[in-house]
């Protein structure tokens, strides 16, 4: 961005900034998913997780040098560590799934994360849940079944890993939302990449192969794009309510479906679109009910 563009962006309202940031993050995440699919033809997904974290951390060093290492001081190390663990599990299963599941199907199933987050909020945060929210959750998970179609087609390991990734991502988002109340967005991204790098290295060593010259370029780009997207996403959810941002986040599906078709020749069937639509509507409704409940409290 030029200085003029930055100045104009700064003058926007918080909801408008958040919407632009979530769309920007979605474009980057969609591009990253396509890059991961390409790189997985040569490198193991666990190795890609390591490189994504390593070069993502390197990409954050200029920000860290400007802010100073004092920005990493925190009174919530346990919660940051827990979020790191959830993030690693989500990445490891997601990257592994992208190697074998069509991009459109993976992203559509990944949209169940807000539904899992709503369930986790009830269990972990003891939020009150009433009949209409329960119905919306049931409908949302029915959308997941429309995509999977158990009994009509076999549910593969890749699809199971996407669902596990969505569950881990839901827990990560809950902890992230809590942390953004006291921690800077940039420091959370630094912590995530810095702590995930050594964690990811251990399993990566068991499947290690050195990248070719071309793959080095791709894994570096994945790290930079991922950290930039993560920064934009985290900043967005700190500026606006999740209910407001969800419709913008769902724009990722047509983006990644197009990339899957254009780059890898992957068609997206009507069941994927129908299931994604059901999940999207139910997720937005659940977020609406949660926002209304918070306002009443």
Account of the 3D structure:
- By secondary structure, the chain is mainly α.
- The termini are far apart.
- The mean pLDDT is 83.
- It has helices at residues 3-10, 14-39, 45-67, 77-98, 103-110, 113-124, 131-148, 157-179, 185-205, 213-239, 242-249, 252-264, 270-296.
- Helices cover 79% and strands 0% of the residues.
- The protein is built from 13 helices and no strands.
- It has one domain (17-296).
Oligomer: single chain
Fraction of helical residues: over 70%
Rg calc? 19 Å
The dominant shape is: globular
Average pLDDT score: 83
CA distance, first residue to last residue: 40 Å
Taking pLDDT < 50 over at least 5 consecutive residues as the criterion, the unreliable ranges are none
Tally of domains? 1
Structural class: mainly alpha
Encode the helix/strand succession as letters.
HHHHHHHHHHHHH
């Amino acid at each position: 961005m030029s200085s003029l563009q930055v100045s104009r962006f700064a003058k926007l309202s918080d909801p408008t900034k958040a919407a632009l940031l979530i769309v920007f993050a979605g474009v980057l995440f969609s591009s990253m998913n396509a890059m991961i699919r390409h790189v997985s033809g040569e490198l193991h997904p666990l190795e890609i997780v390591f490189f994504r974290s390593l070069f993502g951390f390197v990409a954050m060093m200029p920000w860290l040098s400007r802010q100073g290492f004092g920005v990493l001081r925190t009174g919530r190390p346990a919660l940051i560590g827990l979020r790191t663990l959830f993030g690693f599990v989500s990445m490891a299963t997601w990257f592994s799934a992208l190697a074998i599941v069509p991009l459109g199907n993976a992203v559509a199933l990944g949209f169940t994360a807000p539904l899992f987050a709503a369930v986790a909020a009830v269990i972990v945060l003891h939020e009150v849940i009433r009949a209409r929210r329960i119905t919306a959750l049931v409908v949302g998970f029915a959308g997941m079944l429309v995509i999977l179609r158990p009994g009509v087609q076999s549910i593969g390991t890749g699809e199971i890993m996407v669902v596990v990734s969505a569950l881990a991502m839901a827990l990560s988002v809950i902890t992230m939302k809590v942390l953004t109340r006291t921690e800077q967005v940039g420091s959370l991204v630094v912590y995530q990449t810095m702590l995930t790098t050594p964690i990811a290295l251990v399993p990566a060593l068991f499947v290690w192969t050195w990248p070719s010259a071309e793959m080095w370029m791709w894994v570096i780009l994945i790290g930079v794009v991922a950290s930039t997207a993560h920064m934009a996403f985290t900043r967005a959810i700190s500026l606006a309510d999740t209910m407001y941002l969800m419709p913008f986040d769902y724009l990722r599906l047509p983006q990644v479906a197009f990339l899957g078709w254009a780059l890898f020749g992957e068609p997206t069937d009507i069941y994927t679109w129908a299931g994604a639509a059901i999940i999207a509507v139910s997720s937005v409704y659940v977020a609406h009910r949660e926002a209304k409940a918070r306002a009443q409290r």
